[in-house]
Automatic annotation (TrEMBL), chain A:
Pfam families: ABC_tran. InterPro entries: AAA+_ATPase, ABC_AA/LPS_Transport, ABC_transporter-like_ATP-bd, P-loop_NTPase. One of its GO terms (molecular function) is ATP hydrolysis activity. Keywords: ATP-binding, Nucleotide-binding, Transport. GO terms for cellular component: plasma membrane. It comes from Methylobacterium phyllosphaerae. The keyword DNA-binding does not apply. Residues 5-236 form the ABC transporter domain. This is ABC transporter ATP-binding protein. It comes from the Bacteria.
Length: 248, 352
């Protein structure tokens, strides 16, 4: 079966620094996949390559079998990808409901637009803040609002860059529940995350990136049990052999 | 029918101040007062008010590009001058018969739109933003001013129209409207005043509809966070370009009307001082709202003219000072601050 998202020998360097190095990655439709790795592993660069914000030096990106390597970001979004950034990307001086309206107006208008805004506000625990200026929300609420904007596009693939950064444990857990609810509706999720409790809560598979390469890949339990993964987080290993924990 | 209803609904929305019966009643009263105004004022004053109206279109255009789209263009005057000269060249060559002045107006504005599309394409598709957009657009208007200033020689003519260097072009006919028994000449008094008032109302309402529609939503999204806007699937460059073309065409409309009003146009209309003034009008009133821009522009224009009578150099100093004070004390603009204050007061009264 064709993966929903696939990269083939994807490579990106800044000067002499190979930030993404021959990455062959595949994500199945409907899967929740977490991308972990120490700081500087190349996770965010990999995301920006997937989104089209960076152009790779080599390699291909395929979405539902189509080569999207040369497409602009907005064109990728229109094909069914959506993203939530690490730093909340919202429209700060507009109201919360207006933020959602701008995201939803692609496919809705009139009464159905209003109904969908109310439904999303409830889903995001933001009903009480509908007319609040988005810039005045708490950090966690801003993260939820951005998730709401991202899912307004009815994506088949949702990219989440550290969706729980700066959240309290309760907010993190609630975010995990949101992601799982979306996944039950058929949305595939690729999340960069550091919080292992969150990874454990949502991930079906985990990929470890290290110095721009795939270091390990497998189920959450297998990755957590892998001592070599713990070692790279502690800075004890720098050799990045490509291998699969599931295959080992 | 449903389209008309949709358009009417978009006359108010999150992107414009003023809504509900109170606002539209006030609007109707202002329009009625503006219609009655020439009955009480002398021809000169009415013509002078028409002169103010000429400039407002340029301010509204800048409000769209800068206030709503977040791209500060310093080049409104480039299109103002371009269309002004185009109107002059066209009408000096063809004349005013058969309502040609109206065709010249449309062609002159269209020329600005085409040039704005060309310049805007390189700016926005080249991903030039922020301060560089201001620098490039300012450079364009200054280059045009310099170019037109050196066209004094007899070789600088297009057909019968001499460009005349720094002295500028003059003698073009005023706007004329073909009518059943001859034609109506819109001399710069009552006739032109009503013509411009009508045009101003149409443009103001059309812009209100535009900014409250899907287009306006995307435009403010780009102003707030262009990366997020793109990641919602919008081609940011196209929206910025569209706003730039519409806003610049409105500057062209101002230039054409100004040229028809005074029957002259000079290179200084594209110079540094001229280029800075629209920014001041829009910033002082409130760049983020059409009504604030419209009111602010008229008030500042009136104040500027009153000051000029006592000494033009002081008037410019006051304008500069006004900009600094507004940026520091009410960065969203004086009219916006006043309207918000009024809204708060009404809510407080209602809460009692």
């Amino acid at each position: 079966m064709t993966p929903l998202l696939e990269t083939r020998a994807l490579s990106k360097h800044f000067g002499g620094l190979h930030v993404t190095n021959d990455v062959n990655f595949a994500l199945a439709a409907g899967e929740i996949h977490c991308l972990i790795g120490p700081n500087g592993a190349g996770k965010s660069t990999f995301f920006r390559l997937l989104l089209g914000e960076y152009t790779p030096e080599r390699g291909q990106i395929l979405y539902a079998g189509e080569d999207i390597t040369a497409l602009k970001p907005f064109a990728r979004i229109r094909r069914g990808m959506s993203v939530k950034f690490q730093v909340p990307g919202i429209f700060p001086s507009l109201s919360v409901a207006h933020n959602l309206e701008i995201a939803l107006q692609h496919h809705l208008e009139g009464a159905s637009l209003g109904a969908e805004i109310r439904r999303l506000l409830a889903f995001l625990n933001l009903s009480a803040a509908a007319s609040e200026r988005a810039g005045n929300l708490s950090h966690g609420q801003k993260q939820w609002l951005e998730i709401g904007m991202a899912i307004s596009l009815k994506p088949r693939l949702l990219l989440l860059d550290e969706p729980t950064a700066g959240m309290s444990p309760d907010e993190t857990f609630a975010t995990g529940a949101m992601v799982q609810a979306l996944n039950r509706d058929g949305v595939a999720v690729l999340a960069i995350e550091h919080d292992m409790a969150f990874v454990r809560q949502i991930a079906q598979r985990v990929t470890v990136l290290h110095v721009g390469r795939i270091f390990a890949q497998g189920t959450t339990d297998a990755i957590i049990a892998d001592e070599r993964v713990a070692a790279i987080y502690l800075g004890e290993t720098d050799a990045p052999p490509l291998r699969s924990v599931a295959d080992a | 029918m449903s389209l008309a209803m949709t358009l009417l609904r978009r006359l108010e929305g999150p992107q414009t101040l003023g809504r509900g019966p109170a606002f539209w009643t006030a609007f109707a009263i202002v329009i009625a007062a503006a219609i009655a105004y020439p009955w009480f004022a002398d021809g000169y004053t009415v013509g002078n008010t028409a002169y103010f109206f000429c400039w407002v279109f340029m301010a509204l255009g800048l409000c769209l590009i800068w206030g709503y789209g977040g791209a500060l263009s310093f080049g409104q005057t480039a299109f103002f001058g371009l269309s002004g000269y185009a109107y002059g060249v066209l009408t000096l060559n063809v004349g005013a018969a058969y309502g040609f002045t109206l065709a010249a107006l449309v062609l002159a504005v269209a020329l600005s739109a085409v040039m704005a599309a060309l310049l805007g394409y390189f700016l926005f598709f080249g991903r030039i933003g922020g301060v560089f957009l201001g620098i490039i657009t300012l450079s364009v208007t200054l280059a045009l001013e310099r170019f037109m200033a050196q066209t004094a020689g007899p070789e600088w003519k297009i057909g019968a129209a001499r460009l005349n260097g720094y002295n500028g072009m003059s003698g073009m006919p005023p706007l004329t409207v073909p009518w059943f028994d001859g034609e109506i000449v819109l001399f710069p008094d009552v006739a032109l005043y009503y013509g411009l008032l009508g045009l101003l109302i149409v443009v103001y309402l059309a812009l209100r509809i535009l900014v409250n529609a899907r287009f306006g939503n995307v435009l403010v999204a780009i102003r707030e966070n262009p990366e997020r806007a793109e990641m919602l699937g919008y081609d940011v460059r196209r929206y910025q370009l569209a706003a730039f073309v519409i806003g610049s065409a409105l500057a062209g409309l101002s230039g054409t009307l100004y040229t028809a009003w005074g029957q002259y146009i000079t290179p200084s209309s594209m110079g540094l001082t001229a280029a800075a003034l629209p920014v001041i009008w829009v910033a002082v009133g409130g760049r983020g709202d059409l009504t604030a821009t419209l009111l602010g522009t008229l008030v500042v224009l009136g104040g500027f003219q009153a000051l000029t009578i006592y000494g033009s150099q002081y008037a410019l100093v006051v304008m500069g000072l006004l900009l600094v004070v507004v940026v520091l004390a009410a960065p969203d603009g004086l009219v916006v601050a006043a309207m918000r204050g009024l809204g708060r007061l009404r809510r407080r009264e209602a809460g009692r």
